[in-house]
């Protein structure tokens, strides 16, 4: 993650076709790093938490994504202000050469939080459940847990039946036994993550079309335009995205994973249909705040529901310690396949009003499919001990 962030900023060439090839390669490398960290963050938190507050702790970790969006937008705004003042770019002129340096600097700065994460992660011991159940070193697991939580083993134990299982899963991942025991759960996680990412990445893709109605109407330099787009992202994050994450933290261990996932998919479907069906005649060329409210509610309920449960919490709670991070990663890969399908499939739709209307209605239908997958296949993990998976 550290080196790939730096390499993205040093993508060779300045011509569009050349820089996209090298940037694409370095973004692939960055994806490998993020793909490794994503399931680890959820798994580490789930294995250090108890059954009663586990959902809130995992959701709290995931909520930092909202602050990451906020900080990234703030960094973009700051860089644009500095470059705009330094270059005095002509709003109606050609894109200044300095713009090529600005976007590279924004990407390189991502190495800073990645470096801090690496340092703190290296200071952490392996989780006690993995050490005891997979590495078979119970004494080390006890010492690690006592060191992390600064309490005695007697205080760590939740209930008698939650002590570490002496007979953890011994069958391999690619086996009939695994499919028999966990195949349905893995399919439920992967399918729900695929569906939510089709919707989530598609509505993010539409932002350029949507934000264009709310940007200043006068001619702007490239730095001014990027600044105003980032400002709109800050507004969405503060008013919708971050509150959705915190609502998930509050509700996840009170109402359960399945209920808030169903609710999230349902409200997302309603919001997208309310935007999509009358889009051509009502929303297409308007700055009506009603559109922005419905659009923001889609993000709020996505983060309150499926974007938190399917992509972070449930996959970290359903599988044995031996497979937990791997199955989370497989589900994540399915989700990113959904992101590709959504981005490529709806790219053309985002350029025309008719296409936007149809795409939004289809995305609403996909949310309905997500509800069906949640209701029929996703098990409730609230209050469930991780040792039950063994």
Automatic annotation (TrEMBL):
<dbReference type="Pfam" id="PF00083">
    <property type="entry name" value="Sugar_tr"/>
</dbReference>
<dbReference type="InterPro" id="IPR005828">
    <property type="entry name" value="MFS_sugar_transport-like"/>
</dbReference>
<dbReference type="InterPro" id="IPR020846">
    <property type="entry name" value="MFS_dom"/>
</dbReference>
<feature type="transmembrane region" description="Helical">
    <location>
        <begin position="326"/>
        <end position="349"/>
    </location>
</feature>
<feature type="transmembrane region" description="Helical">
    <location>
        <begin position="25"/>
        <end position="45"/>
    </location>
</feature>
<feature type="transmembrane region" description="Helical">
    <location>
        <begin position="291"/>
        <end position="314"/>
    </location>
</feature>
<feature type="transmembrane region" description="Helical">
    <location>
        <begin position="186"/>
        <end position="206"/>
    </location>
</feature>
<comment type="similarity">
    <text>Belongs to the major facilitator superfamily. Phosphate:H(+) symporter (TC 2.A.1.9) family.</text>
</comment>
<feature type="transmembrane region" description="Helical">
    <location>
        <begin position="355"/>
        <end position="377"/>
    </location>
</feature>
<feature type="transmembrane region" description="Helical">
    <location>
        <begin position="226"/>
        <end position="248"/>
    </location>
</feature>
<keyword id="KW-0472">Membrane</keyword>
<dbReference type="InterPro" id="IPR036259">
    <property type="entry name" value="MFS_trans_sf"/>
</dbReference>
<protein>
    <recommendedName>
        <fullName>Major facilitator superfamily (MFS) profile domain-containing protein</fullName>
    </recommendedName>
</protein>
<keyword id="KW-0812">Transmembrane</keyword>
<feature type="transmembrane region" description="Helical">
    <location>
        <begin position="260"/>
        <end position="279"/>
    </location>
</feature>
<dbReference type="GO" id="GO:0016020">
    <property type="term" value="C:membrane"/>
</dbReference>
<feature type="transmembrane region" description="Helical">
    <location>
        <begin position="57"/>
        <end position="81"/>
    </location>
</feature>
<feature type="domain" description="Major facilitator superfamily (MFS) profile">
    <location>
        <begin position="1"/>
        <end position="382"/>
    </location>
</feature>
<feature type="transmembrane region" description="Helical">
    <location>
        <begin position="101"/>
        <end position="120"/>
    </location>
</feature>
<keyword id="KW-1133">Transmembrane helix</keyword>
<dbReference type="GO" id="GO:0022857">
    <property type="term" value="F:transmembrane transporter activity"/>
</dbReference>
